[in-house]
Task: inverse folding
């Protein structure tokens, strides 16, 4: 079944071209859970065969990720805040919790958004608390694009160099995810110490 899905995605990207990459990455980055691995790796593979331009593949992947993230961001502002303020009391979430979240993202939204885009199961949803906290939009777009860009480039290069070897892709992808999570943990720790020293 997985093979059939990947075959369908490769066919979709081949037929729709760069627009297909943009649309699929938009879906992946919004509130619909959809693994970016099955989009960008086949796209990178098509680039290796000369059917697509690698820079355009990466650009469409990043742009789709950003637009999908912006959908979550604005949905959180338009729907999430009113719902939380009205019904949050039933789950022990009060207005002062939202104010604390806003304060946190005002001070640390850049590092949270950037690292969140690199961590599986978080990258699609980090835009929601950013929207709830009304994080500065240009800052949000910059760090979302930066984090998404790193992930898109990694996946595209995997597809470009080893796109036909599914076993090797899984092995490399696992090691890359572990390395990214560890790097994010180290980066957050260093950032926390830096902020703490500045505060003192």
Result:
């Amino acid at each position: 079944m997985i093979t059939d899905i990947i075959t369908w995605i490769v066919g979709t990207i081949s037929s729709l071209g760069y627009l297909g990459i943009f649309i699929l990455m938009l879906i992946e980055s919004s509130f619909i859970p959809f693994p970016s691995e099955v989009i960008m790796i086949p796209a990178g593979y098509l680039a290796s065969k000369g059917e697509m331009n690698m820079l355009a593949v990466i650009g469409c992947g990043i742009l789709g990720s950003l637009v999908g993230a912006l959908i979550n961001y604005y949905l959180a502002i338009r729907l999430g805040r009113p719902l939380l303020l009205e019904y949050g009391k039933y789950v022990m979430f009060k207005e002062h919790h939202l104010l604390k979240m806003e304060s946190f993202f005002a001070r640390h939204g850049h590092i949270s958004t950037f690292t969140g885009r690199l961590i599986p199961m978080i990258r699609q949803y980090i835009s929601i608390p950013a929207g709830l906290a009304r994080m500065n939009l240009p800052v949000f777009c910059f760090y979302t694009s930066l984090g998404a860009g790193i992930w898109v480039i990694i996946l595209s290069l995997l597809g470009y160099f080893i796109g036909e070897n599914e076993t090797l892709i899984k092995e490399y992808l696992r090691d890359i995810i572990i390395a990214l999570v560890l790097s994010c943990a180290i980066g957050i720790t260093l950032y926390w110490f830096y902020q703490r020293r500045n505060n003192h």
User: Anything to note?
Assistant: The first helix runs from residue 2 to 16.
